[in-house]
DNA sequence: ACGAGTATTATTGTATACAATTTACTTGAT
DNA sequence: ATCAAGTAAATTGTATACAATAATACTCGT
């Protein structure tokens, strides 16, 4: 089967800048740096074995991502992402995932419907086996397919961004097997609504799906 | 009165990179470049009298903004922003402005309420006088105040971005004096709902406010 | 000992130099 | 004339050099 590369990485993976960008983003999101910690170009460059140039470019990009604050002539400081930020993102996503599912009803292809079905089917298998790694990956895939299907560059862009932001938290949430199973059931219902072209229902279900995820996170004490 | 600088410019205005970034963004959004047009680092640098370094950093940032697509080892190409993109952004905004108004109910300060009132009052004046420039500026301000008041870094960030994206279109929409007047009435109702801490109503009104703006755009043939 | 002012150092901002890659062109064989 | 291969030119990717700014340390007077 042809495995379509999901374009979650905006930035070139293979250039030095891309590598620095991705690694810094990962490190910031995973909490390796303190909040407000200063990121010195030379230091980071030395750590990664590159010159200042790619580091600077990566830092400037991270500024736009909101993960770093750059003070002119002073330096780059880690902004990080607080528990409230994550909470807010989930609420924002609850609306946008709803809108996305609604639009997907109009634009989804038979092939994409097929892919969604397959994704859920596989995910049910891995949920029974408690293969957490695969569950998260398939959750990723399910949502990314709908992002594609909504046929909106803007909506896909923002949702992919947020999906990335909360990746670490999603892993925790889905580690709860009960939640993973529930999540699959919700995915199934969303798929059925989209297949039936019931835009209202699809929107509502996708919205509720995220709200329930938030509830679960709260239960996990996040 | 202390005029608080609205931080719509993420990027340092005074560095060369910041200037290149802002100018390129403006030029792309205003349609100065063709879609898919190649942006050569040297050419742009020459046009703006700077070296490649600040140009590269600006281009990398614009990539993250989605205004430029960078193909490794080949170049930077204008992505631009289509009529559909703008349409999509307005729909996305309709939800997010609703959410923003809802959250603002909980967090808005007396001072911010005061500012909102003043903004509307002034805007009514300029609407009667047909001072289009000021009307757009005050519309900006009204929304930015609420973005601040929602007390969510993430939501403010994304809404400010989108506000910027559609700035050119907003000017067209508000050039219709009838729309400008209507818009002020809607702003007033939103303000009242927020002041009354009626989160449900505020959300609904803010949502509808954007939907009506979309209707108006459609009537203008955008 | 303390603080103002200055010199030194460190760091960022920008320009340029060099390397790697891609694109365009030229040349030659069929 | 057409196409292919190879070479030259142009362009991007990265590193380094230089300039400007900010942080630090030091001197000197009180």
What descriptive keywords fit this protein?
3 strands, Arc Repressor Mutant, subunit A, 2 domains, 10 helices, three-stranded antiparallel β-sheet, mainly alpha, homodimer, disordered N terminus, 222 residues, Four Helix Bundle (Hemerythrin (Met), subunit A), DNA-binding
CATH homologous superfamily identity of the largest domain in chain A: GntR ligand-binding domain-like
Q: In CATH, what is the class of the largest domain in chain A?
A: Mainly Alpha
Whole-number tally of structural domains of chain A: 2
For the record, give the distance between the C-alpha atoms at the N and C termini of chain A, rounded to a whole number.
Answer: 38 Å
Quaternary organisation of the protein chains: homodimer
Secondary-structure element sequence of chain A? Answer: HEHHEEHHHHHHH
SS element count, helices of chain A? 10
* CATH fold-type name of the largest domain in chain A: Four Helix Bundle (Hemerythrin (Met), subunit A)
Count the beta strands of chain A. 3
Report the CATH architecture of the largest domain in chain A. Answer: Up-down Bundle
Mean model confidence by pLDDT of chain A? 92
Share of residues in helices of chain A: over 70%
Uncertain ranges of chain A:
1-8
Q: Topology, pairings included?
A:
The structure is a homodimer of 222-residue chains.
Chain A: H1 16-29, E1 38-39, H2 41-48, H3 52-65, E2 68-71, E3 75-78, H4 83-107, H5 110-129, H6 132-149, H7 153-165, H8 167-175, H9 177-195, H10 199-219
Antiparallel strand pairs in A: 1-3, 2-3
Chain A binds a DNA duplex (30 and 30 nucleotides) through residues 15-17, 40-42, 50-54, 56, 72-76.
């Amino acid at each position: 089967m042809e495995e379509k590369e999901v374009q979650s990485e905006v930035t070139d993976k293979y250039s030095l800048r891309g590598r620095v960008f991705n690694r810094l983003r990962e490190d910031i999101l995973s909490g390796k740096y303190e909040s407000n910690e200063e990121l010195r170009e030379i230091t980071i460059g030395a750590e990664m074995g590159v010159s200042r140039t790619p580091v600077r470019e990566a830092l400037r990009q991270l500024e736009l991502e909101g993960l770093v604050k750059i003070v002119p002539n002073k330096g780059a400081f880690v902004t990080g992402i607080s528990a409230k930020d994550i909470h807010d993102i989930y609420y924002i996503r609850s609306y946008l995932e709803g809108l996305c599912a609604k639009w997907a009803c109009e634009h989804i292809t038979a092939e994409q419907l097929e892919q969604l079905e397959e994704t859920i089917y596989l995910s049910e298998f891995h949920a029974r086996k408690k293969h957490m790694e695969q569950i998260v990956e398939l959750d990723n895939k399910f949502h990314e397919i709908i992002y594609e299907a909504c046929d909106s560059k803007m909506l896909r862009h923002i949702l992919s961004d947020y999906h990335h932001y909360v990746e670490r938290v999603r892993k925790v949430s889905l580690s709860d097997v009960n939640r993973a199973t529930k999540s699959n059931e919700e995915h199934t219902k969303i798929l059925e609504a989209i297949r039936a072209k019931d835009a209202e229902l699809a929107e509502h279900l996708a919205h509720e799906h995220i709200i329930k995820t938030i509830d679960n996170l709260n239960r996990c004490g996040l």
